[in-house]
Specification:
254 residues; two-stranded antiparallel sheet; 2 strands; 13 helices; mainly alpha; Four Helix Bundle (Hemerythrin (Met), subunit A)
């Protein structure tokens, strides 16, 4: 709907939007379209222009740009996975399993060893991520910074080295992790806030659980992306349909 309303300075009515949705394979009654439009009005994304219909507000334009950006990044993630050789893709989940264990241990040790100054740094970064949630990248850089601070606070350089080696083994996976908000469809801010609170409370078990839960969301998202990519075996089972035999001079059935 936002796409159809974009650029419509004179307003678009519910009937026009219903036809637009139908043309895009979405069946919706006119009352349903009207209800959705009222919800968009309530959210400040659209505004009614007399009896001519609705137009996008400035907030609506920003939301549309965000949706377009996220759709582009989703396509990028799938294309990235498709471009990786199948043997490398097969390593994704075992690598993520190992990384999840390492990240969980880093979080546990950080909760035990973090200094007051390190805790303040983490809290500031998480707050910075919250302030960037409306931006297209949804605070991705702050999320990366938070994990870096956790690593420093854990006080074990060998765990950090092991993590870095595993990420370096598969750079496409590292790129996906940086785009975790887009890949998972959810913001990492709540998970980072939960982790920061566990570290501030010096609760190792809570920090470890929070990290494992956080990582599990990413792993499930990667699994879903991988399931949508056909394997070589899938491709080999697809048979080329035979062209129907047509007798010369045969009558065509209408």
């Amino acid at each position: 709907m936002l796409e159809r309303l974009d650029g419509a300075a004179d307003g678009v009515g519910s009937g026009t939007l219903q036809l637009y949705l139908r043309d895009h394979g979405i069946s919706a009654s006119q009352p349903t379209v009207g209800r959705i439009l009222r919800e968009l009005d309530h959210d400040g994304l659209t505004v009614k222009v007399s009896n001519r219909g609705r137009v996008l507000t400035e907030k609506g334009h920003r939301r549309l740009e965000l949706v377009r950006f996220e759709n582009t990044r989703h396509q990028w993630a799938e294309e990235l996975l498709r471009s990786v050789d199948p043997p490398s893709r097969a390593d994704f989940l075992p690598i993520l399993e190992a990384l999840g264990l390492i990240e969980g241990e880093i979080a546990r040790l950080a909760a035990e060893r973090a200094t007051d100054e390190q805790i303040k740094e983490m809290q500031a970064v998480v707050e910075g991520q919250r302030g960037n949630l409306e931006n297209p990248m949804r605070g991705a850089q702050q999320g990366t910074d938070f994990h870096h601070l956790l690593g420093n606070a854990c006080g074990n350089r060998f765990l950090q080295l092991a993590k870095r080696i595993l990420w370096d083994v598969n750079r496409p996976l590292q790129d996906l992790w940086y785009e975790a908000n887009i890949v998972t469809g959810t913001s990492s801010y709540p998970a980072h806030l939960r982790l920061a609170k566990a570290v501030a409370a010096h609760d190792p078990r809570a920090a470890q659980r929070a990290m494992r839960d956080h990582f599990a969301v990413f792993v499930r998202a990667v699994e879903k992306h991988l399931q949508r990519i056909p394997t070589k075996e899938d491709a080999s089972t697809v048979k080329t349909p035979r062209r129907p035999h047509r007798t010369v001079g045969a009558r065509r059935t209408l």
